[in-house]
Amino acid sequence: MRPPTAGKRGGLLKRNIWILSFFVCCITSPVAAAPWLKTLDQATQASQKERRPILVEVYAPWCGFCRQMRREIYDAPGFEAKSAGYTLLSLDGEKEIEFSKRYRIEGFPTVLFLDHNGVEISRLEGYADARRFYGALQSAFKERLMQDQLTDAVEKSPDGFASNYELGNYFARAHLHDQARTYFWRAYRSSDVVNSLQRERVLYNIGVLSMRLEEYAMSASIFDAFVRNAETETTDVIYARYWRAVSLLKTDSGKTEKQDQIIEDLKFAERRLPFPGDRKEARRLLEGLR
């Protein structure tokens, strides 16, 4: 076979250089950074259509283990592909105080696995190596459709106490208050035989949700029924009296027509509420009536 001419050798050389450059580029180019969102609202909105679970990195700037997990896991090769089914959220737990309270963040790093409505599936607390992290990632992904599973249970037992209570509790954890109240009412009215304390606890939850929906006349009425039905004084009863007073203060008729009851409830709450901050607030409300 005749050797290639100089012109052909030059063309082959250029072609080989181009191919080599292409492969070097492919090998050395960094993987595109995963799109980490910055608020829970952004993450839940992005997750709704495909019901994608949410991976939350909760960190603190001073946290050495947080930086180590960032290097070893989030910025390492393979993370983008393995987390492709998730919406990613990164939060400074010291700045996002309301988030940290809602999810009871007690230290850093914390990794939360949430469903598309922001309901917690599972968590990792403290440093996790790649093996532990990816094991949790895969397990949480399998549990991502909690809402569908609970809805199926209600469809199978539409008047059941347990099925409606569990779905109501799910929506309450998702901060979807109206939906939660609907299913709690269904549980409360269920003809299933359940412990009276369980049924009354559902009524208490309905009162709290009514307050969050700013339906204060309803919440006052519900807490009133809860207190009257209570057989013993529990923490729920103490808070129900406090919330009854707060609800009445939010209504024009309550402030004028039931002021004596409001004062009595707030005096009781000032003495009996378990947390100092709540007792202080009860005292402040009471002083405003004097």
Automatic annotation (TrEMBL):
Instruction: List, alphabetically, the SUPFAM superfamilies matched.
Output: Thioredoxin-like (SSF52833), TPR-like (SSF48452)
List, alphabetically, the InterPro entries matched: AGR/TXD, Thioredoxin-like_fold, Thioredoxin-like_sf, Thioredoxin_domain, TPR-like_helical_dom_sf
GO biological processes: response to stress
Pfam families reported for this sequence: Thioredoxin_2
Keywords recorded for this protein, A-Z: Signal
Q: Where does the Thioredoxin domain lie?
A: 1-142
Matching PROSITE patterns = THIOREDOXIN_2
Give the protein name, as stated in the record.
Answer: Thioredoxin family protein
